[in-house]
Structure formats: structure tokens, C-alpha cells
Amino acid sequence: MARHHEGLDTTTEDIMAGKASIVFAHGLWADGSCFSKLIPALQAEGHEVSASQHGLDSLAGDVACVTRSIEHVPGPVVLVGHSYGGTLITKAGTHDRVGALVYIAALAPDEGETSQEQLDRFPQTPVFDHIDVADGRIWLLESGIGDFCGDLPPAEQKLVLATGAVPVPDLFAQQVPGTAWRTKPSWYIVANNDRTVPPDLERSSAERIGAKTYAVDSSHVPMLSHPDLVLDVIRDAAKTLET
Questions:
Q1: Has domain 21-239 been given CATH number 3.40.50.1820?
Q2: Which Pfam families has this protein been placed in (predicted)?
Q3: Residue 5 above 70 pLDDT?
Q4: How far are the Cα atoms of 74, 151, 170 from residue 51, in angstroms, in the given order?
Q5: Are 189 and 230 in contact (CB under 8 A)?
Q6: Nearest 5°: phi and psi at 2?
Q7: Residue 7 burial by CB count (10 A; 0-12/13-18/19+): exposed, middle or buried?
Q8: What distance separates the 2 farthest-apart alpha carbons in the chain?
């Protein structure tokens, strides 16, 4: 059901007419602010934007949170997932309002395959030497932030570390049904210098899902280190849904 926007002048309504909405899904050790370099530009271009703020408490709960964001905005929706957020858009993206999927250095498990099973097919990356399991969560240590987002300025790295949500230990072993990339057009951004999700996994995922693929010499967070490229990919996906 489309939502009505009260108080908008005619010019703004005209700009928004026919525009796809954008819903973001973050990964581990992140929150919705990891898309802060993308959201203002997309809003200025007339897109309605929502960033899911899920708590990494359970896969089912995180998918439900992304689904709420999908249902909060008008369709059609471009669903954008970073890292573990790729698992979330793979599951939540079966929603009939979703028309396109954008994966950013992301997981994209097949039906019946967990996030961990997808990761296990590739050598472990350096970031996992810098984690601590405490208080029922997996914490990224300060010593590992360079492996997560080492191409950001030091102040931005500290901000990423301070704002990141922390997952329950068995999150990647959990399963819910849904494989949206089997029926929805997909775009994929491969981070060539990723030390968190293996770049070989990213390339393999992009090929398996038949995605329109872009590669960038980036750490695990191209939306922060190369936002212009990521914006162009999202715009490309959105164009296919707009009237």
C-alpha cells in the first residue's frame, strides 16, 4: 500500500513521483550509519530511504527488521545489503515490493546454505584473528579495525568501531528460508582488498547469482571509502524500476 506524504510542495512530489525507494541492511560491527555517505545524495534525488537498524540478535529477527523497513516505504524497492546484510536481503528480498538487489562485499547464501557454510568454502580472512567472544557477543577488537576498514582515515575508523553492533556467536549458523536472487535482478560490488569477507567469495557469489558486477580497490567498506561508485551502482539498479 502506497503511503501519502503530507506537507510536500508540488515540486517535491513531482521529483518523488516514479522514484524507487532504497532500503539498506547493514552487516556485523556496523549499523545504519555505515550508509551515511549515500543517504543524503539519494534523498536529494527524490528517493525515499530507510536503513534497517537490526540488532544482530537472530537471523529471523534481523530479517523481520529489514522487512519492516521494506513495508514502511513505497514500492518499488531497491534492497541494498553490505556484508552479512547480503544474507538479509537474500531472505527479505523475496517480498513482492522488492524489485532489485544490490550486494556490497556481501554474503549471498543459497537456499538451505547458511552464512557460515558459504564462508567456510574460502580461507579465513585476517579480521577474524582480532575478535573477542564475551558477554554473549562477538566483538571486533581495536587491533582488527584496519582489516575491516583500513582505507578510511583514522578518525573514521574509530567512528566505525564505536558505532558497530555486535552479533551473537551463532548468528551465521542460523537459517531462515528465502533466496531472492533466484528471481530478482542483482548488482554486486566486489571489494578487491577486502580482509573481512574474502574477495574470492565475493566474485564467486556475484557469478553464482548472475549479478551485474563492479570491482573496486577497497577495504570491506566501499560505501564509506568509495561512495560515488556505490551510489552509481544503486542508481543503475533504481533506474530499472522507475517509470
A1: yes
A2: Abhydrolase_6
A3: no
A4: 14, 23, 24
A5: yes
A6: -70, 145
A7: exposed
A8: 54
